[in-house]
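User: Could you check the structure of this?
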Amino acid sequence: MADEWASRVAAGAWLGDQRRNASLVGILAALLAHRGLSWSAALGSRLRQAAGDLVRLTCGLADLLRGAFEYTAELAAACEWVIISFDKSCFNYTGLRGLRRQLGNLGQTKGQARGLWALSGLVLTPQGEPLGLIHLKVWARPDNLAPADQRPYHERESYGWEEGVRAASERLRPGQRVLAVADREADVFEFLNMARPAGVDLLVRVAQPRRYHEEGSLDPALASVLQGVWQRPRAQLERRRCGDREALLSLHYLRCELCAPSKWPAARRCRVPVTVVGVREEHPPPGVKPLCWVLVTTRLLHTAEAAWEMVQVYGRRWRIETLHETIKTEGLGIERLQLRSVSALTLAVGLYYVVGCRAMELCFQAREHPDQPALGRLDEDELAVLAVLSGRPVVTLGEAVAQVAKLGGWEGYPSSQPYGPRTVQRGLEALSHMVCYHRAERAQRCDP
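Assistant: Sure, the predicted structure tokens are below.
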């Protein structure tokens, strides 16, 4: 299952020596096959030294992951347009006391928590199927930083959003249409006003009160009922699932020009043509906080249907939240890494991101395209073990991954919630132990 993918990803890495690329194949396959184990236990004695040599390299993270980015770009090229979901996350390594001074401030418990920050970009199809990683930046936040408004824009962390969009668009095929989606943390006027590459648009959830046409503000708290937005006649109601209930949502959208912050000098002030989309739950159950999103996109929308599409696209942004849950303590255990330098830790984090994306892809492929053959995604020994467990041959990917999910704790009843990547990971880990026993037993039978 993993060898072909690992070979493709490792072939594109710039490591200075083909022998290191060959080692990277085994490292990726081992990390994928042994999720939930520590770095050392997953690699075993055969690969541990090679992995140590690899993460001690002076190569950059982009060089190590170049093959993964190319693999994602090839998959994305088959789509008319793609979503890139961007998100920032932190990894807590406070327990690594020898690295305390080199690690960064996580902004928790008065600076006592130490670790690394990461900004990643995950490529999705318009239907929300994850294709892979296209951007990753990992850094340690310095202590005692000057306030953001006292530093140039390109020296702030918020510049990372623009940096990520540019890097991702350069790695995709020329002319690829992209909608870059980010949460409220990316609501930065400089980011919305960036000189975007051709075919690239932004979709960001509003966090800051912003002025449009000098008439009013887009109030994220909706205290003023968005003044102009909700009062426009272009509105419609639609029923959608919201958690375990069906919500009545009202949609409003407004094409306008966002004005630069008033504190900017007159010479810098400008306007950005955008569409503001507001969606809010009407008549929520008593005691339930109503669903409320205010989104701003640089794509100029002309119909309510196009505005609903933006709401749906933003909802698919949560795939990258799932990725972060997958690679943290409940999934791949990225915060259990115990390496001896921040540079080694950074490269190892990059490898776990790639492995986490692959695990997610398997899960969503099985759910969205269950009738494709399982052979090729899983090897013959894995399918043989699953056939014994299910009592019949396992042919399709949907059948195979459903059986894997049951090993991970999924009940599999018609009323059960769909399985997710973490459940599939737990099942694959259990399956790997069964396959090892199956191979050992077969070898013993064949031993004269």
